Amino acid sequence: MNLDRLDAATILGARVWIVTIGQTITGGSGENNKVSDTVLPELPESYANPGDWIALGKVRTAKPQTDYKTADVEGVDDTGAYKVTELKMAQKRKLQFSTNDITPEAFQMTFGLTSAIVDGEEQSVFASGNDSLEVWACYEMTDAYRTQTGIARILVRGVLSLQNPLEAKSDLAQADYELSVKPNALAMFVAGAAA
Predict the structure, then answer these.
(1) In angstroms, rounded to a whole number, what is the distance separating the alpha carbons of residues 22 and 11?
(2) 123-168 pLDDT per residue, tens
(3) pTM of the predicted model, to two decimals?
(4) Do residues 53 and 37 lie in contact, with contact meaning Cβ atoms separated by under 8 Å?
(5) What pLDDT sits at residue 144?
(6) What is the chain written as a DSSP string?
(7) pLDDT score recorded for residue 121
(8) How far separated are the first and last CA of the chain, in Å rounded?
(9) What is the distance between the alpha carbons of residues 93 and 133, in angstroms, rounded to a whole number?
């Protein structure tokens, strides 16, 4: 990260792209032409040139979230007295982000559709038992104020869902996404990975 530690104030931005597990990708062959836990397409270059990835819209807000469990560890220290130390353990990690751009994936999860939306093709509404998508997400943090360049790129495997269904009201629509992260050896954090 090429940030000056004494002048690193910035307005953080985020860009998010996804590919769904099982999606056919270009450049692969045989078993390597479908996205899986071990097969990924080339990472996206930009919104204009995403390759096999899709953007879920221009991100309005984004944040990582960790859910913790705490436990008390009791034992005798060097003084001979019992001491209790609190142990904090990360249990779940999530990426949460919102956008005013409403994509077909948001409608798919809102109305419980079992497959991707295709214009003119019928599907049963609320037929899915799990209103989520198994995906890889490419999450890029940007210096949105000064240089508009990438600060870091994060690649994670996860389950994408909506925090709330899409709501019709006399205001801008907003999709609030939540990506529950699944551990995977291909997950990575790269500083300065500007697109």
Answers:
(1) 36
(2) 999 998 889 999 999 999 998 888 778 889 999 999 999 999 999 9
(3) 0.86
(4) no
(5) 87
(6) ----TTS----EEEEEEEEETT-B-TT--GGGGB--SS--PPPP--SS--TT-EE---EEEEEEEEEEEEEEEEEE-TTS-EEEEEEEEEEEEEEEEEES---HHHHHHHTT-SS---TT----TT--SS-EEEEEEEEEEEETTTT--EEEEEEEEEEEEESS----SSS---EEEEEEEE--TT-EEEET---
(7) 93
(8) 14
(9) 17
Amino acid at residue number 52: D
Which one-letter amino acid corresponds to residue 132?
S
d(CA 144, CA 13): 5
One-character DSSP codes across 11-65: -EEEEEEEEETT-B-TT--GGGGB--SS--PPPP--SS--TT-EE---EEEEEEE
Mean pLDDT of 41-60: 92
Q: State the maximum Cα–Cα separation within the chain, in Å, rounded to a whole number.
A: 75
Rounded Cα gap, residues 176 and 174, in angstroms: 6
Least confident of 10-24, 27-41, 46-60, 151-165: 27-41
